Amino acid sequence: MKKAGITADKEYIIGEVDKRMYGSFIEHMGRAVYEGIYEPGHPKADKDGFRTDVQELIKELQVPFIRYPGGNFLSGYNWEDGVGPVKDRPRRLDLAWQTTETNEVGTNEFLTWAKKVNAEVNMAVNLGTRGIDAARNLVEYCNHPEGSYWSDLRKSHGYEKPYGIKTWCLGNEMDGPWQIGHKTAHEYGRLAAETAKVMKWTDPTIELVACGSSNSGMPSFIEWEAEVLEHTYEHVDYISLHTYYGNHENDLENYLAKSMDLDHFIKSVTAVCDYMKAKKRSKKTIHLSLDEWNVWYHSNEADKKVEPWITARPILEDIYNFEDALLIGSLLITMLQHADRLKIACLAQLVNVIAPIMTEKGGEAWRQPIFYPYMHASVYGRGTSMKLLVTSPKYDSADFTDVPYVDAAAVYHEEDEALTIFAVNKSKELMETEIKLRGFEDYRIIEHIVLEHQDMKATNQKNRKEVTPHSNGTSSANAEGITAHFTPLSWNVIRLSGK
Ligand code: AHR
């Protein structure tokens, strides 16, 4: 058995957790939209053709915010193709994912669906093949009440009220050579600044996300951010980060240590934002949007064999296992530790495409193992992220040194008098953890949820719920707080209440 310690003090806080931290992402790709959220003719489809069983699972996750419509798809998308009578919409080749896009689902259908699942939409504008004009027209179409060409067109399409979309992305991964309309930092920075300017002139209430690097391994990483912010600083509110992890070497210790990479990534982007703030003598602070994050590697080989140009190509259908769920838990903890600067995060993606929810055409919908840590954080992680003191034994792995076996974060919801501690035990041994709670003396344990499994590769296929959490975690109150037993390789959620 190993020993660790966690101290929480009511006075020591990191910052408010923005609900958009628990966002997700639906792109027009693979079976995310067609056969995912939308499947007219499915026994559980509603009158608009959207699957209610999928909606129920999304509601379980309490996803507050969903990025749309891409992704790489965005950079070749004409939003005008997806509005107006469905019968008149063009079928287009999507060059990003070698798919035929039918445009059956477009802006209004997606926004209607998002309302059904109680999520706000994070709309993205195409800065690959399009630019300022298409972007400002889309803002006018979505957000202007009436009395102008684009707002009246929306009304004529049957959508009377403006949507009031608050958060908008200025393109997608524009630093990547794979992107349609890939740009240099200078080209993108100028275009993003001018687009941002007129989007905000169209609706001054919106917030904008500029594209950061596609991942921290890009050769232009950090210089890209600096140059983009050089042009856009006063026009945007967030800069994006994207990151995907995989256990390519089948090295569990190293895999679980990858949350340290995310920590480093967030710190680096925060540093460049603050450097630009100082350089520009600005009073404004740029925040971070991790608008794509997940594990993505299981499906890489299979995807090479999928037939091109069909609609709903079954690509990026990663089947997640238990060890992926542990890493997702650690990544969520890392995000909470940066709640002061990281305001938006979108688990990429939500249904079928590298997703917590899978569906079968005409059949079932089910929860992958990664569903659970994401759900626990989203449901119990609203409030103030606490600055914890964590003492843990450490290990070295292939790529990381001094990796703590225990990762932990805590969120306090003052009004509900709820304190939740999230912890991952990366050790193969039981971890006895003394949790000291200062200022929470009268709080009692409501529940200790645990996600654990003997087989790190266990999955949840259709009709097989191998990896599911239980509430039999062992935590007991003592004079100073709690003694918690984190079982080997486990995700833990300790819920406390002051009521
Ligand atoms: O989420 C899948 C893809 O990953 C997105 O389309 C792209 O932005 C990223 O490279």
UniProtKB/TrEMBL annotation:
It catalyses: Hydrolysis of terminal non-reducing alpha-L-arabinofuranoside residues in alpha-L-arabinosides. Keywords: Carbohydrate metabolism, Glycosidase, Hydrolase. GO terms for biological process: L-arabinose metabolic process; polysaccharide catabolic process. Pathway: Glycan metabolism. Residues 291-490 form the Alpha-L-arabinofuranosidase C-terminal domain. Its EC number is 3.2.1.55. Residues 457-479 are annotated as: Disordered. It is an enzyme of class 3 (hydrolase). PANTHER family: ALPHA-L-ARABINOFURANOSIDASE C, ALPHA-L-ARABINOFURANOSIDASE C-RELATED. This is non-reducing end alpha-L-arabinofuranosidase. It comes from Bacillus velezensis (strain DSM 23117 / BGSC 10A6 / LMG 26770 / FZB42) (Bacillus amyloliquefaciens subsp. plantarum).
